[in-house]
Design brief:
Radius of gyration: 21 Å
Shape: globular
Distance between the termini: 17 Å
Number of domains: 1
Strand content: under 5%
Oligomer: single chain
CATH superfamily: MFS general substrate transporter like domains
Largest sheet: none
CATH class: Mainly Alpha
């Protein structure tokens, strides 16, 4: 039962704090698994290819590595969203984390690019399923609207911890990896970074007996009134508009990650001050710049978490973020920030602040437009088809455009390509967002 307007809310219980901690751990490692592929891409291709940066072969495999696991993983996550509505939020959440943790560990043992891609597909699928299950779970466990918005917003702030973890884990692996046990006969930092993704399975297995199922989902199942989820219903007249628009807009927003953010680590070794350093110091700079990327994402998600609690209108909020990005992205990747590594790290902080706000936006918006029996299915359709199947095409576009873009160096060609893709995705989102429906304050039940 929802609290009356103006009534004070009871403090969170111990079980509710446990729920938030579990979701926070899941969100953190979801982001870790999505980001780690970008930061390890260069050393992976240098070792398992081996391919040299700037060559057509390197760019081709970079596109494959960023696109294929995410696309195939997104299709797997689409099934996971259906399972979330069919068998319960808590159960699917826990086992999806166990799945991607095991696959992440095995990815670190890979001896070929094909083997690595297979394990990465499974890892990404598990991480995508966990995100959908956790959002549906939290939405139904906290029925009071204002608290629900705050919980969803601030729980997603934990996702940025995954960014900080990869920056720290990779820096530690690069700096002190030689003191760790060998993996496949080497002390390659990228292997340790991938295997670190297995950590969340440990606390989740211990906490699982104490985690409740969604009371809304459980009550409907027990009463026999829980309708079977259906992908066809998402495209029926009642939900067609919101399904299509959210899928396209999620694709545009997540294209900023695949077409721009995930290529930032590849720019760093080519920056003027960094290019003259030994390889170990270059990789340390990659981690240092990534720390600023993570800081921007954290600030952006915190800002969004505050905005969704105090501001009701959703469409104007999204359009404001898109206009900010349209002005900022070309300024950073076509401007003088690339001439100085210290300026660049602060410029990309601002870029990821704007993008991070957009990511949290969808975590709060999607549960409010799909009914109970389609909440996981609808979220997974938008996030999987839009964010994991369509959006990764931006990675292919960026890597292939880098072969033909103007620029004196491979770094400048890549930066120009990133700017073009980011501007195109943002303009598309601005056009489509004009028709995005405003969600009701109450959660749709049927």
């Amino acid at each position: 039962m929802e609290a009356a307007p103006g009534a004070s809310l009871a403090p969170l219980t111990r079980v509710q704090w446990l729920i938030l901690a579990t979701a926070g751990i899941g969100f953190a490692f979801d982001m870790y698994e999505m980001v780690v592929q970008a930061i390890v891409l260069r050393p992976v291709l240098l070792e398992l290819g081996p391919y040299q940066p700037g060559t057509a072969a390197f760019n081709r495999w970079a596109g494959i590595m960023l696109f294929l696991p995410t696309m195939l993983g997104g299709i797997g996550a689409l099934i996971g969203g259906y399972l979330t509505d069919r068998f319960g939020r808590q159960r699917v959440l826990v086992w999806s984390i166990v799945l991607y943790a095991a696959a992440a560990f095995l990815a670190g043992l890979s001896t070929s690019l094909v083997e690595l891609i297979i394990w990465r597909c499974i890892t990404v699928a598990g991480a995508c399923v966990e995100f959908v299950a956790a959002i549906a779970w939290l939405t139904e466990l906290f029925p009071e609207p204002r608290r629900r918005e705050a919980v969803l917003g601030f729980a997603q702030v934990c996702a940025t911890l995954g960014n900080f973890m990869i920056a720290g884990a990779y820096y530690a692996a690069v700096t002190w990896g030689e003191h760790l046990p060998e993996v496949q006969g080497t002390h390659a930092a990228w292997r340790y970074a991938l295997m670190f993704g297995a950590v969340p399975a440990i606390p989740l297995i211990l906490l699982r007996p104490f985690l409740p199922e969604s009371p809304v989902w459980s009550a409907r199942r027990a009463a026999g009134t829980l309708r079977r989820p259906s992908f066809r219903e998402l495209l029926a007249p009642r939900l067609r508009r919101v399904t299509v628009l959210t899928t396209l807009l999620v694709a545009c927003c997540y294209a900023l990650a695949f077409g721009m953010l995930q290529h930032i680590p590849r720019l760093v070794p080519g920056l003027p001050q960094v290019a003259l350093l030994p390889r170990v110091q270059q990789e340390q700079w990659v981690s240092w710049v990534h720390l600023h990327v993570d800081t921007g994402a954290l600030i952006g998600r915190i800002l969004l978490a505050g905005l969704v609690v105090w501001f009701v209108s959703r469409r104007p909020m999204l359009r404001a973020m898109l206009w900010m990005g349209l002005g900022l992205f070309p300024l950073v990747f076509l401007g003088p920030a690339l001439d100085d590594a210290n300026t660049f790290k602060y410029a990309v902080l601002a870029v990821t602040l704007v993008v991070g706000m957009q990511y949290s936006y969808w975590g709060n918006y999607l549960p409010r437009v799909f009914p109970v029996h389609l909440r996981g299915t609808g979220e997974s359709f938008a996030m999987s088809i839009g964010g994991r199947v369509l959006a990764p095409l931006a990675a292919v576009a960026t890597t292939q455009l880098a072969n033909v873009m103007p620029g004196a160096t491979p770094t400048l060609k890549l930066a120009n390509s990133m700017a073009v893709v980011a501007v195109f995705a943002t303009v598309c989102a601005l056009v489509v967002s004009r028709w995005l429906p405003e969600p009701s304050a109450e959660l749709p039940e049927d």
